[in-house]
Amino acid sequence: MGHFKVVFVYFVIAYNSYAQDKTDGNEVVQAPIEPLPVHWQQSRINEPVFDGVVHVVETGKKYKKTIILVHGLGYSGLRDWLGVIPQLESEYHVIALDLPGFGESDPTSLQLAPRRYAQLLKWLIPQFSTQQVTLIGHSMGGAISLRFASEFPEMVERLVMVDTAGVLHRSVFVRHMTQMPDRYEWLAKYQQQFDFVDTAVSRFNRFIDRVSGSMLSRLDRLPDPTQVLLSNEYAQQYVYKDRPTLNAAIGLINEDFSQALDSLAVPTHIIWGEFDRVAPLRTGEILQSKITHAELNIIHEAGHVPMKDKPNEFMRKLNYALNSPPSKKQNSNTVETKQLPTLTCNNQNERSYSGHYAFVYISGCRYVTLSDLYAEQIYIENSEVTMQHVVGKSDSLTMEVIDSFVTMTNVRLQGETALRVKGSTVDAAGSEFTGATLPIQVVSDSLIYLSVSSQHYKGEFQYLHGMSQGNSYKLR
């Protein structure tokens, strides 16, 4: 079963991130490499980080501002940018590279991960520019660019992240990719014309999502064999041979960006496809909330690769990002009155609520959304709830979750005990928990996933990125 978990993680990541590797036994069949324009200068440079040759493309005028393009998973490497570079080269000095393991750069059995790739960029960028650069990263390349900008901010003038993958906890990341899509191109016109079609599709998808979610929860209770790969170079040499996508994917989903998001001071633009099936839009909202100077722009009707799905709209968003300082959206939950009402949802489905409340009571409700909401206390039982930009403050227990599934994004809870969980699954990302006694308490068998979150407890601050399972709260 543990072996199945590795294979399953690899399958969903490789498939959904448009990787082009196909296996026949141990042989990897690679699609023909598309030729590059003849006026682009190509270099093959010996680099010390992976001890191999890295393939770099350079175009544009060297005296202009330098842009570094960092690609995501897939054998095509820097060719993912073929539609973008020609529109940048007249105004910028453009550098694109094939990351080691991909494209025309050397293969490697060393562990591929954003932190190591960031070290490569630190060595490579001074070979082409003596000034600060603008870093543009897509998918895994966005995670690499985030890591680099947080560790070497003096080298970065501006950061642009496009549909960045790997920020959420690995189980949450995989869970999103196994979910059924919200829309189907072939059904779109019928869904717009007939409400019953949209309702039927939605109910079917939710049923499948519950089944796949239950299976993933069972897998999460097993030992994680990917940890062996991360620490054993002999295992890496055997498993990663001719499998760079698996190698990089495992390195990506096991990296924690909590501190990087808190410390990043570089002006940042975030571009996201509305219907990304690999990295959820939720991730972009977390990045905007956590990064000091960040702006999120959404490309509607686009997926994980918006520069291919909506090339004209992508270039408009990118040119805006390259020429404008980020304008950060502020979320306010300031309480305007002391006489707050009670919000009750009892055996109702598909409801959305916002506003200010003394007490929020949700029981027997499915597909409930709480957004831009303030409450003194929140009680959720036997329900499925999504929370976005919610603030809860009390002098006692602020939020209790019983026999429910709750997804929390950019939520702040403060109280004697901020959150108590019983027999439930809680997925909290970009959230903060402050408790005088306990920030988080588990009183019965539960699963808690925490992504780039934090807790304040007895004057101490702690990042939370991991999973807790069982009858007590113990993050791993």
Q: Which short descriptors sum up this protein?
A:
elongated, 476 residues, 14 helices, eleven-stranded mixed beta sheet, alpha/beta, 21 strands, disordered N terminus, 3 domains, Rossmann fold
Question: Any overview of this molecule?
Answer:
- The protein folds into three domains: 2-167 and 224-323, Rossmann fold, CATH 3.40.50; 171-220, no CATH class; 342-470, no CATH class.
- It has helices at residues 2-16, 85-88, 114-124, 140-151, 170-178, 188-193, 195-220, 226-231, 233-239, 244-253, 258-263, 281-290, 306-309, 311-323, and strands spanning 22-24, 27-29, 41-47, 52-59, 66-70, 93-98, 133-138, 156-162, 268-273, 294-299, 342-346, 352-363, 368-381, 384-393, 397-402, 405-409, 412-422, 425-429, 432-442, 446-457, 460-470.
- The strands form three sheets. Strands 11, 12, 13, 14, 15, 16, 17, 18, 19, 20 and 21 form an eleven-stranded mixed sheet that branches.
- Helix 3 (114-124) packs across helix 4.
- The model is unreliable at 1-29 and 204-209 (pLDDT under 50).
- The protein is elongated.
- It is an alpha/beta fold.
- It is 29% helix and 33% strand.
